[in-house]
């Protein structure tokens, strides 16, 4: 079998299985890495060792060369807000302690059908509400590049798992940047597909008009492979789109794409290293044949306040179902005087401060007398932001932005100032408000060696173009991103 230390990507796994290796051998390699490395990271909330090995044995019995199973034997980690039959799915919240769904989310069902092996569940900010993976009942997740820094969020566990080579690929969810931001912080490729492209059935909802499931991986090809499997219409999801999912690579890539750059968005609040890396990335794209076009997105500056009205409003509605009656944790009845008191006590003890903060913000925005001033106004601005993108996409094929204004920051830095966390979504939130596909690809490292991400935003249902551009950039990038320090290639 191929040297175990060399097995990191989907391509590596498939090469090993095409040789003399087995899916059980590959699964064992990743399970051993989790056992050795994850105690220092906290990437996983549950490791499904027994079932993963059983699934791998099934792949071996069936054979890994079945063309109908493009991910046969590929281990994958799943964010803990995506339902997995028989495995814990808690959204990192005390209110769902020990909850085990009786069904798989559609994306998990499709991964299993494609032969993937589910390694376990990854840590996240509670109900995906956060940008650091510090708001979890399981404790914090640490960035493999620097254990004193955040991995990003809310899909920080998935990002940390892939960056530390504990899984070749992972699923996350993205409501305001929760795939792309941790991908940038951890040196990965992360894709938020078009809204409706990937089924949300089985995703524990945060904000239903914004949430989207997507993959994180070490390469564009790995992310594209998982995307191809999970994408497509699902009758179980009323918001699922019927558009056909194109092949990638498509063989029809535009060799001279036009890329829009909204320079006025980059005037303030962006680190010098991030801006320098962005300029270098643009030079790389230009030298590869792309044309750079200055564009204006005049309403994009309002994306963060708009997002932080719409998302909490939808969250306050979605999280009303967690009341201790049907499933999840219930406050002991002996301590309550009546049903209302039981609701209150259950939610008080079950939700963290960050979740309570967002529920209260959303309830306020939807309340009588404030609905028009906040929620309705936010939806109007949302429409204007989408129109801005419609306008620029009449002349360009993609929009380029930094993924984040900074690199990964120290753990606890913004614990007492959540507003500073919120403004970090300035470059990512627009893609959720508009429903457009967006991807983060590693573009370099800052002066401390921490990864930086380049973001590419595409037209609705045109993931192929941004995947093509990202793959082109990946090939032409002047310097490799490298590996997290201390990650021994021979481990």
Looking at the structure, the CATH topology is Amidase signature (AS) enzymes
Tally of strands: 11
Q: What is the domain tally?
A: 1
| Oligomer kind | single chain
Q: Approximately what portion of the residues adopt beta-strand conformation?
A: 5-15%
Task: Report the end-to-end length measured between terminal Cα atoms.
Answer: 16 Å
- Poorly predicted regions are none
CATH architecture: Alpha-Beta Complex
- CATH top level is Alpha Beta
Percent in helix: 25-40%
Derived structural class: alpha/beta
Q: If you average the pLDDT, what whole number results?
A: 94
Describe the main β-sheet briefly: 11 strands, mixed
| Count of helical regions | 15
Series of secondary-structure elements, N-terminal to C-terminal: HHEHEHEHEHEEHEHEHHHHEHHEEH
Q: Which strand order spans the largest sheet, edge to edge or round the barrel?
A: 1-3-2-4-6-5-10-11-9-7-8
* Alpha carbon gyration radius: 21 Å
Q: What is the molecular shape? A: globular
SSE layout:
Elements: H1 10-18, H2 23-37, E1 44-47, H3 49-62, E2 75-79, H4 106-113, E3 117-122, H5 156-163, E4 169-174, H6 180-186, E5 189-192, E6 212-217, H7 220-230, E7 258-261, H8 272-287, E8 291-294, H9 303-318, H10 339-350, H11 353-366, H12 372-392, E9 398-402, H13 418-422, H14 429-434, E10 438-445, E11 451-458, H15 463-476
Parallel strand pairs: 2-3, 2-4, 7-8, 7-9
Antiparallel strand pairs: 1-3, 4-6, 5-6, 5-10, 9-11, 10-11
């Amino acid at each position: 079998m191929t040297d175990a230390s060399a097995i990191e990507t989907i391509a590596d796994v498939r090469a090993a299985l095409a040789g003399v290796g087995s899916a059980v051998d590959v699964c064992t390699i990743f399970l051993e890495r989790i056992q050795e490395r994850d105690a220092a990271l906290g990437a996983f909330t549950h490791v499904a060792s027994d079932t993963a090995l059983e699934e791998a044995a099934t792949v071996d019995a069936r054979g890994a060369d079945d063309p109908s199973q493009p991910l046969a034997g590929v281990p994958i980690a799943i964010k803990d807000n995506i339902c997995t039959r028989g495995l814990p799915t808690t959204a990192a919240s005390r209110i769902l302690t020990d909850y085990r769904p009786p069904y798989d989310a559609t994306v998990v069902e499709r991964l299993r059908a494609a032969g993937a092996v589910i390694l376990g569940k990854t840590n996240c900010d509670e109900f995906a509400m956060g940008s650091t993976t510090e708001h979890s009942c399981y404790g914090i997740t640490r960035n493999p590049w620097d254990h004193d820094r955040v991995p990003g969020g809310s899909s920080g566990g998935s990002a940390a798992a892939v960056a530390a080579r504990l899984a070749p690929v992972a699923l996350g969810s993205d409501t305001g940047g929760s795939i792309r931001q941790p991908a940038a912080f951890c040196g990965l490729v992360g894709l938020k597909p078009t809204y409706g492209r990937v089924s949300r059935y089985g995703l524990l909802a945060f904000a239903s008009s914004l949430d989207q499931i997507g993959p994180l991986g070490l390469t564009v090809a790995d992310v594209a492979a998982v995307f191809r499997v999970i994408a497509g219409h699902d009758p179980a999801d009323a918001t699922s789109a019927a558009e056909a999912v194109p092949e990638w690579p498509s063989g029809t890539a535009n060799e001279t794409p036009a890329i829009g750059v909204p320079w006025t968005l980059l005037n303030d609040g962006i680190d010098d290293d991030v801006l320098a890396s962005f300029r270098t990335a643009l030079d790389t794209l230009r030298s590869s044949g792309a044309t750079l076009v200055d564009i204006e997105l005049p309403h994009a500056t309002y994306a963060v306040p708009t997002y932080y009205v719409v998302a909490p409003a939808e969250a306050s509605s979605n999280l009303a179902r967690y009341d201790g009656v049907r499933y999840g944790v219930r406050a002991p009845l002996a301590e309550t005087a009546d049903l209302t008191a039981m609701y209150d006590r259950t939610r008080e003890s079950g939700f963290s401060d960050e979740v309570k903060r967002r529920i209260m913000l959303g309830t306020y925005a939807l309340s009588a007398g404030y609905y028009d001033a906040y929620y309705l106004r936010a939806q109007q601005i949302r429409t204007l932001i989408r129109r801005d993108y419609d306008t620029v996409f009449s002349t360009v094929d993609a929009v380029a932005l930094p993924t984040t204004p900074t690199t990964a920051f120290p753990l606890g830095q913004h614990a007492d100032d959540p507003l500073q966390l919120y403004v970090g979504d300035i470059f990512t939130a627009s893609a959720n408000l508009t429903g457009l596909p967006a991807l983060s690809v590693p573009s370099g490292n800052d002066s401390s060696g921490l990864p930086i991400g380049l973001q590419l935003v595409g037209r609705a249902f045109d993931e192929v173009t941004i995947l093509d551009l990202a793959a082109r950039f990946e090939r032409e990038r002047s310097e490799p991103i490298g590996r997290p320090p201390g990650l021994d290639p021979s481990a």
